[in-house]
Amino acid sequence: MLFTTTPVLHRVMTANASPRVTLVVGMVLGSTLLALVIYHVRTDELLLHSVSFAGSVIAIGISTMRMINTRTLAGSEARRQIWGMVRFGAVIFNLGYWLWLVDVWMCSYLKSIRQAVGLPLAFFLELHGWWHICTGIGAYIFIAVIDHLVSGDDHKDIPESLAWPAPWAAQSIFSGKGSDKKQA
């Protein structure tokens, strides 16, 4: 989890920074990550790991919101689409995190249920696997959107430049599609 959020956190923290600041922030984040991983591996302590992850996600979320508001035009189609992708990414990422927590808390119970129901139904109860899928999709969307926001001014056709499910999210209920009909 921390190996996913740390590079994204670095990207949002250094979006307009000089090469020197980018290097220093990278070294600080890398050192912090290394210390957290060593501590977690040696102690098998989960609270600091989870709090660090949550703090990274919150910092990434706040920074992403600021970037969207400063780098896109208010009311533009691009802003609406980007917000749709970011909302979907946040929802799917957090769903993955909650599936992981349930898996940690109920591992032995879920294992016995999987053994009782057998394949193919047991596949749906592999919450640790779903955690990887959901957080991977959410992380991809955030990485791709942030990369797009910091690397260029033209936000036209952003959904088409990204892989699924980002284009779908840009046109879905997450972007406010469908709510326009109710307002008309």
From TrEMBL:
Cofactor(s) the protein requires to work: Zn(2+)
UniProt keyword annotation of Hydrolase present: yes
Chief place where the protein resides: membrane
Subcellular location field: Membrane
Membrane topology summary: Multi-pass membrane protein
InterPro entries: ACER
Binding-site residues for Zn(2+), renumbered to this chain: 128, 132
Keyword annotations from UniProtKB, A to Z: Hydrolase, Membrane, Metal-binding, Transmembrane, Transmembrane helix, Zinc
One Gene Ontology term from the biological process aspect of the record: ceramide biosynthetic process
Keyword Mitochondrion: no
Membrane-spanning parts: 21-41, 47-69, 81-100, 129-150
Record's GO cellular component terms: endoplasmic reticulum membrane
One function term, GO molecular function aspect: metal ion binding
Family under the similarity heading: Belongs to the alkaline ceramidase family.
Protein name: Alkaline phytoceramidase
Taxonomic source organism: Aspergillus felis
